[in-house]
Write a sequence for this structure.
């Protein structure tokens, strides 16, 4: 059991520190180039008009800043197995919001849309251009952030689940910064009239659509990329990886080109809901598949604690399991609050064991004692 525990710690990289400043690492300088280029493009785009449209921009920043709160809570909930450090996730978020949006997508989309207009005409470009452009430029631009983060933290980013979580944060950054861009463009189209009302309308429309937008696309795409790369022994599956990435691009295409797909028929009223349902089903299927490796690592890491009687088998099943396993454990204890506290304490114990690399430490001893205290309560 100890050998399996050490192998899980080594393979997962859980507990390894994350350091952003790495002047001897090429990935660090490419990351700075992308973010710096994105910042310059952002300043040029808003330019002299920013003071005049300050009310719209301020409203957009506040509204979408509040919009981030439930997203962060949701993603923090899913970042619960061999959890990624907050600094690493922030690195992904900034890449998605600044570099992928302004350094890559904004100029690349404009260039490719112009090509589609020349090839198929303005009507073709209007109906199909966005869906033929964004899935290429935006998904690969966001995924480049994951590749750079692998370069910055190769021991931390190992599994498809890591790719899923990091991809969701990259996509969320892209989504929010792009939405603020839409707020600004909407205000300019109305020549500054009713700026806050304009930003509120964009927020309501884009916020609702954001549930099945870039965070979802990137989570699926980056999970597929990790399956393709196969950074964990036994997890590489090139066919699954390519198909998962193509699925994310197909979803992006369908979402951007609903007008062209519906052809102006009555299908346009139900198509967004149908696509959203399909996307969510696919998202949870990818999430469950990607979590298998992480769940096995948690079981191996806590195996010696089960042998020692610190963690009982039902608690291990709940900590390493799915939502249904946690619900089953709550019923087993007949106490939602006790189950929640025990799950949190056991996760803390697993994290401290990983940080100590399987050795005893004061923090491991304290976390273990807390689990025993809660079990006996």
């Amino acid at each position: 059991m100890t050998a399996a525990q050490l192998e899980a710690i080594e393979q997962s990289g859980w507990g390894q520190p994350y350091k952003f400043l790495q002047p001897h690492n090429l990935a660090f300088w490419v990351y700075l180039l992308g973010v710096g280029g994105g910042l310059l493009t952002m300043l040029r785009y808003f330019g002299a008009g920013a003071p005049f449209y300050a009310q719209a921009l301020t409203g957009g920043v506040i509204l979408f800043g509040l919009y981030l709160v439930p997203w962060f809570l949701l993603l923090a909930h899913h970042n619960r197995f061999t959890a990624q450090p907050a600094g690493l996730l922030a690195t992904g978020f900034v890449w998605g919001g600044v570099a992928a949006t302004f350094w890559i997508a904004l100029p690349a989309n404009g260039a490719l849309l112009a090509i589609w207009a020349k090839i198929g005409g303005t009507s073709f470009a209007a109906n199909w251009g966005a869906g033929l452009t964004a899935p290429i430029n935006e998904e690969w631009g966001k995924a480049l952030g994951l590749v750079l983060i692998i370069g910055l933290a190769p021991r931390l980013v190992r599994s498809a689940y890591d790719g899923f979580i990091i991809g969701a944060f990259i996509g969320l950054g892209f989504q929010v910064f792009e939405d603020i861009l839409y707020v600004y463009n909407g205000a300019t189209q109305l020549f500054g009239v009713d700026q806050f009302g304009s930003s509120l309308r964009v927020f309501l429309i884009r916020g609702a659509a954001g549930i099945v937008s870039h965070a979802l696309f990137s989570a699926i795409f980056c999970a597929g990329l990790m399956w393709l790369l196969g950074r964990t022994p036994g997890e590489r599956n090139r066919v699954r990886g390519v198909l998962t990435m193509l699925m994310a691009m197909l979803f992006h295409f369908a979402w951007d080109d609903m007008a062209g797909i519906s052809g102006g028929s009555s299908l346009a009223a139900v198509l967004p809901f149908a696509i959203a349902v399909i996307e969510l089903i696919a998202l949870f299927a990818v999430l469950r598949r990607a979590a298998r490796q992480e769940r096995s690592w948690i079981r191996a890491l806590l195996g010696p604690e089960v042998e020692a009687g610190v963690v009982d088998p039902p608690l291990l099943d709940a900590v390493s399991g799915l939502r249904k396993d946690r619900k089953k454990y709550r019923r087993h204890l007949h106490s939602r609050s006790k189950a929640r506290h025990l799950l949190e304490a056991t996760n803390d114990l697993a994290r401290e064991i990983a940080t100590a690399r399987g050795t005893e430490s004061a923090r491991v001893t304290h976390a273990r004692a807390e689990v025993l205290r809660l079990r006996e309560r």
Residues 308-376 form one domain.
